[in-house]
Structure formats: C-alpha cells, structure tokens
Amino acid sequence: MDFSNFLLLQQEISLMAVFVILFIYDVFCSDKGKQWFQLVACILFALHTAVGFLPFPTGEAFGGMFVGSNITIIMKNILNIGTFLIFLQANNWLKSQETAHKRGEFFIITLVTLLGMYLMVSAGNFMMLYIGMETASLPMACLATFNKYKERSAEAGAKYILVSALSSGVMLFGLSFLYGCMGTMYFSDMSIQMVSEPLVILGFVFFFSGLAFKLSLVPFHLWTADVYEGSPTAVTAYLSVASKGAAAFALMFTLYKVFGTIEAIWNPLLWGSAVITITVGNLFAIRQKDIKRFFAFSSISQAGYILLGIIAGTSQGMTATVYYVLVYVFSNLAAFGVISAVENQTNGNTLISAFNGLYKNNPKLSLVMMLAVFSLGGIPPFAGFFSKFYIFMAAAEQGQFLLVFIALLNTVISLYYYLLIIKAMFIKEGDEQSVGRFVTDGYNKTGLVLCTAGILVIGIISCIYEHIGALGFGM
Amino acid sequence: MIKMEYYLIVSTLMFFIGIYGFVVRKNMLAILISLELVLNAVEINFAVFNRYLFPGSMEGMFFTLFGIAITAAETAIAIAIIINVYRNIGSINVRKINKMKG
Q1: Cβ <8 Å between A162 and B32
Q2: Are A180 and B85 within 8 A, CB to CB?
Q3: Do A162 and B35 lie within an 8 Å CB cutoff?
Q4: Residues of B in contact with A287 (CB under 8 A)
Q5: Is residue B17 part of a domain?
Q6: Which of chain A's residues have a Cβ under 8 Å away from the Cβ of B97?
Q7: pLDDT of residue A229
Q8: For B46, which of A170, A179, A288 is closest by C-beta distance?
Q9: N or C, fewer C-beta in 10 Å, chain A?
Q10: Are B32 and B21 in contact (CB under 8 A)?
Q11: A184 touches chain B (CB under 8 A)
Q12: What is the pTM of this model?
C-alpha cells in the first residue's frame, strides 16, 4: 500500500495528534494536574499552528478526494490562528465554576470542528465537503449549548442544530440533482460536464442556499443573531470567525472549481445576495441593544463584503477574499476578546450599556475595542481599510461599479453603528450598571495583544498580501 | 421495472412534506422527525439516480450510506440538546423557547 498520500495530510495529522494528547491528558490526569490544562492546550496548539507554516508537499490524495495546495494551507493557517486566539480568550470563562470540570471537552470538541473545517477547505469531492461540513457543524451545536444550566445557551443550541440540519438537508437535495445530471461527485469531473440546463440550475440553487445558511447570508441569516447571543462568548467568536471563514472558502472553491463554467447563472444570484446581505446586516445592527447581537449583524454584513471578492471571480478576487478573512479574524477576535473580558465582570450581561464609561476605568481595553471597530469599519491606517480596499478593487476591475458603490454607501452606514460603541465607551458616563476597574487575565491579555498587533501590522506590511497573491491558485 | 419518475415523485413529496413539517410543527421532536423526512428523501434520490442512470459505479450508494450514518449522529445530538432544553425550560414547544428576540 502506498502511504505517500498521507504526506499531504500533515496539518490534519498534527491536529489529530494534539487532539489525542489532550484527550488522554483530560481522561487520565488527576484534578490537581489539570490546573495546567489551559497552558498545555495553548502551547500544543501554538506548536500545531507553527507546523502549518512549514513547507508542504502539494497535490491530490486518495484519488482526488483530498486536495492540498498552497492556498488551502494558507486558509488552514488562518483558521488555526483564529482558533488559537479563541483558546486564549476562553480561559476566564472556562475557569468559572460551571465549566471548570468540563474544560477539556471544550478544547476537544473545538479541535474536532476544526478538523471538519480543514476537510471542507481541501475537499475535492462533494461527499468530502458534506462530511467536513457536518463534522464542523454538529460539534458546534454542542459548543453552543456548552453552558448547560443557562436557558439562553440551551435555546441557542436547539436553534443551531435544527437549522443546520435543515440547511444540510437542502444542500444535499441540490447535490442529488447535480449527481443525477453528471453521474459523479468529483469536482474535476463535474466541472467538465457542467452545462446550464434546468436541473443543474435547480441543484445549484439548493446547494447554494444550503451553504448560505452556514455563511449566514440574507435571507438565510435568521438563526445568526439568536445563536450568537445565546452561546458562550468564546463560542460566538469561534462561530463568527472560523465557521464563517471556512464556509466562505468552501463556497469560493466550489464556485470556481465546479460551477466555473456557469458563472452567468451564479453571478446575478451572488450579486443580489451580496447587496441584501450588506444592507440588511447594517440596518439591523443599528437597533441592537445587546453587543453580541450587534456583532452578529455586523458579521452578517462582513459576509456580504466577502461575497464581493468571490463575485469578482479573478485570482485577484480570491487573494482579496483570503486576505479579507485574515484581517476579519484579527479585528473580530479583538472585539470579542474585550467583550469576554467585560462579560466576566458583569455576570453574563452583554448589553451595550455595560460598556458605558469603559474608558475611565479600563483605558487599555477600550483602546483595543476602538482599534477593532475602526478596523471592522475600514478606517485608513488599520488593516480593515486595506482588506476592504482590495475587495472593492477586485470587484471594480470586473466592472461591478454599482455593487461597489452600494457597498461603499454601506460602509458609511456601518461607521455610524460602530461609532455607537465608541460613543458608549468614551463619551457616555458610567453608572452603577457599567463595569468598574478590573484586571484582565494573562491569557486574554496575550490574545488581545496579538490581535492588536495583527490589526496594526497586517495592513502596513504589504508582503502578506503579495505572499497570498503569489501562491497562485492551483485551480 | 418501476419507472424512475415514480421514485422521484415520492422523494420530492417527502422532501417538501418535511420542509412543511419543519415550518408548521411546534413540538421539537416533530420538527426532528420532519428533518428525517428531508434527509431520507435525499438518500432515496441518490440511490435511485445511481441505480437507474449510472449503474456502473457505486458513488450514489456510498453517499447514501454516509448520509445515513451522519443523519444518525445528527439525530443523537439533536435529541441530547432537546433533552437539555426540556431540563432548562420545562417544555419542548418551540413557542416556549423565545427568550431571545429582536
């Protein structure tokens, strides 16, 4: 038997090694030894993240089921970075009395979902994509309901599992029609036989709506706000960054690799979807009182911007999309790091009014939050500006001027609601409901420093964008 | 031999009955049963397309097998979560799980 195929799976294998070590540690270690669990998990995962930057062989494994190219490695690295930052942020929540005894489970389940995302990204066959997607979304429901004794968490988990099961059912229904037309599920074989006949279009629409659920595009976004609000904050951050990023990458790969020849069909579909996603996400974010709901709608509108890069359909658009997700990981996680730090002081109250007067008592935290929302809104010196700029440029080069214009208008709207948070932190006076002075724990502090460095540096150091662009897309 | 269209009619009906049930039913277990209808309709589709159109390969059948296994896992997790909802809220009626709105 030929084992050389497994060389392509280096990242998966290293992830499984981390998983097995943590699992054994969790099962066999005494309670006293487990006080180092967080540290060991973070160090192991940091090593795993570092392994991702080593040079890898590329190619196809298992008869084309699994594709490992330079760009999938970059995507997996982005997901790794996001997960690592979330592990750092989760420390304080995991130490609390309710979750301390099942701290190991959080890491183990998260690693399994990450494996599912890897498979989604490097799938070369729709069966692989489906299995990866389910491996990512089923444990995610367990994570959403991780606070077992909180009503909101239970509600979020129930909503997530039912909606994600329905979406995968709809997606599979579309795939079955595509299979009926082509007789194969391999991306490379399907793209050759792809013609725009009615059954193919029907299948594609079902498939797209299934994937749009995961990416929470409007009009498939209704679960997003509830699940984001109810889940524990670390899980919300994970959902908004890693889950969404993996879905965006998978959508991009399938659209380019499989449905490339029927671009005339999906282009208007994505166009409309991007316009409503950005607009609805922005308009609904304005009226939110809860900060996690607020960031849920903000992440919906960010998903719309990601679509802009996919619509462009060029290698420049793909580069811009990957870069956008990278920047989005850092800016969103900086915001969620601050939210989880504040939430720990307010016993789970996540209203925006809890942030009133944050600057007086915790100037550093509010500074990080300010950088994060400026980056999300796209204000020049920060990374978010450059990622938006590249995305708009990629779309404009394909003549999508109207789309870019609408997106630009929406950027102005988004600035308004992002500034509402700044106003709460810097201008409004704190009352007895808002948090007093407190010290963030070391792990979260490390995570916030990394995020801040990312926001400040990624935009200015141009070699990162050029590096992603130079990898070329082995399509 | 039975024509392929009849199988497709059954599977399409099952799919849309499932969607209808998902939207209309108020009991979460009934919603879960509707979801099973949706997923099983898909599996009928794959098996039928494979048997009638592409009898030379087994890809659709494999997809069906994997689909059944994943559906079982999905149901197990969903039932665990529904039990958790019942412990917290005391009901599995979807009208009762409305704490979060807006």
Answers
A1: yes
A2: no
A3: yes
A4: 102
A5: yes
A6: 154-155, 158-159
A7: 92
A8: A179
A9: N
A10: no
A11: yes
A12: 0.94
Q: Do B60 and A172 touch (CB under 8 A)?
A: no
CB-CB neighbors (< 8 A) of B89 in chain A = 151, 154-155
CATH code of the domain covering residue B66? 1.10.287.3510
Residue with tokens 């900086």: A334
The low-confidence residues of chain A, meaning pLDDT below 70, are 1, 472-475
Residue B98 placed within a domain: no
Cα gap A154→A156, rounded to integer Å: 5
Cβ proximity of A87 and A40 under 8 Å: no
Residue B96 domain-assigned (yes or no): no
Q: Are A60 and A67 in contact (CB under 8 A)?
A: yes
ipTM above 0.90, yes or no: yes
DSSP tag of A314: S
Contacts of B100 in chain A (CB under 8 A): 152, 155-156, 225-226, 229-230
pLDDT tens digits, one per residue of A213-229: 999 998 899 999 999 99
B86 is written with which tokens?
A: 């019942």
Our CA-based measurement puts residue A447 at a distance from the nearest CA of chain B, in whole angstroms, of: 29
Write the pLDDT tens digit of every residue in A31-43: 888 888 899 999 9
CB atoms within 10 A of CB B74: 23
Domain of residue B11, residue span: 4-89
Element (H, E) at A236: helix A233-238
- Picking from A89, A85, A77, the residue whose alpha carbon sits closest to that of residue A330 is A85
Asked whether the predicted pLDDT for residue B1 surpasses 60, the reply is yes
Neighbouring C-alpha atoms within 13 Å toward the C-beta of B9: 5
Q: Give the separation between CA A114 and CA A126, rounded to whole angstroms.
A: 18
The dihedral of CA B39, B45, B46, B48: what is its sign?
positive
Chain B: give the shortest CA distance to residue A223, in Å.
11
| Residues of B with Cβ-Cβ distance to A173 under 8 angstroms | 15, 38, 41-42, 45
pLDDT of residue B2: 87
pLDDT attached to residue A472? 63
| Domain membership flag for residue B75 | yes
**What is residue A109's predicted lDDT score, i.e. its pLDDT?**
95
